[in-house]
Amino acid sequence: MKNYLFCFFLTICLIAGGGNMLAQAKDQMNTKIKGGKTMEIKSSSFNHEDMIPAKYTCDGQNISPPLAWRDAPKETKSFALICDDPDAPAGTWVHWVIFDIPANVNSLPEKVAKQEEIAGLGKNGKNSSRRYGYDGPCPPGGTHRYYFKLYALDAMLNLNAGLSKEDLLKAMKGHILSEAQVMGRYKR
After folding, report:
1. Which domain holds residue 162?
2. What phi and psi values does residue 12 have, to the nearest 5 degrees?
3. Measured between alpha carbons, how far is 9 from 54 in angstroms, rounded to an integer?
């Protein structure tokens, strides 16, 4: 009986205290990083937390959606973008890694090329399917969340195309000036 009461009490404490933590961890569209700068990223194809149109998924043309950003720190030398799905059954699934986006670029058009280097737009890394470029949502079941995370960096990374998300995150360490994200959902 003591174990039952202890577990019950612990559960109540976690629920009561965890509500604050959950509220703080709620999806944020724009965040501040080093230097206190706030950036914003949006897509003209879907609003933050709305459904991603099928056109940008495996059920459609499987092309990247248009993305645009503003208010990057003036010290920005390059941008990087990671799109991933934390709801994938086998763990976070990476849909897109792109980096060395020049500082004078403030958007990515629809249908960014799926090749190693993209003229004027940077370099593609490899997604979880081990392919270059964007690979759209294709959830096996349920509604999944897809985070498009933009990083403003104080350096051009000058690394070879084909980086994984993990390699890119390591390379960006200490170089992130600001970060922003937009999240879309998709259900098949």
Report:
1. 29-187
2. -60, -45
3. 45
In-domain check, residue 163: yes
Distance between CA atoms of residues 185 and 188, nearest Å: 10
CA dihedral 61, 64, 67, 72 (to 10 degrees): 180
Q: Is residue 114 part of a domain?
A: yes
pLDDT on residue 37: 53
DSSP class of residue 27 equals -
Torsion of CA 162, 168, 170, 175, to 10 degrees: 140
How far apart (Å, rounded) are the C-alpha atoms in residues 94 and 132?
11
Q: Which residues of the chain have pLDDT under 50?
A: 1-30
| Domain count of the fold of the chain | 1
Question: What CATH number is given to the structural domain containing 68?
Answer: 3.90.280.10
